[in-house]
Amino acid sequence: MTDYNLLDSQLHALLDEEPDALAAAANFVALLYNAMPDINWLGIYVLRGDELVLGPFQGKPACVHIRLDEGVCGAAASSLQTQRVADVQAFPGHIVCDPDSRSELVVPLIAHERLIGVLDIDSPTTRRFSEADQVGVEKLCESFCTLQETRKYFI
Ligand code: SME
Are 16 and 100 in contact (CB under 8 A)? Predict the structure, then answer.
């Protein structure tokens, strides 16, 4: 069971004084990747124009460009709703980056009321992500986005 309150404190300790948006994003991803058990990939896809582009991540090399009408990430970005997918093989249009992935949690990142990207977490276990994980990760993304709003540049 991940302690999301503790992670939120650690996130603030790492990022509150960091003015560089990209460095903050890289450490956000590294913090979560190392704190969450049973995951094989975790990273940010950044909104660039009308597509998502691979940003800071941990795990195997992944696909770089994702259209907004493609995959779980595109669904989260275009609907602005978290996608919690219990079995990726049952998700129409799921994009296979790491063939080990079985379930996925994708949270839209919204700063200044605009989509800036998505946080994507993959697990090799089906049904890995509970509702508590969704709520906890959404809260961390909210903290991250609030901090991004104070930077001169977004990721
Ligand atoms: N599976 C994602 C693509 C990104 S990778 O999992 C890293 C999707 O369907 O959008």
Answer: no
133 ligand 1 Cβ < 6 A: no
Q: Is 40 helix (H, G, I), strand (E, B) or coil?
A: coil
Amino acid 153: pLDDT: 73
What domains appear along the chain, each with residue ranges and CATH number?
Answer: 4-148 (3.30.450.40)
Residues 2-17: pLDDT tens digits?
999 999 999 999 999 9
Q: Is 4 in the pocket of ligand 1 (CB under 6 A)?
A: no
pTM of the model: 0.97
User: From ligand 1's centre to the CA of 102, what distance in Å?
Assistant: 11
Mean pLDDT of the region 97-120: 95
Assign 3-state DSSP to the chain and report helix, strand, coil percentages, each to 5. Answer: 35, 25, 35
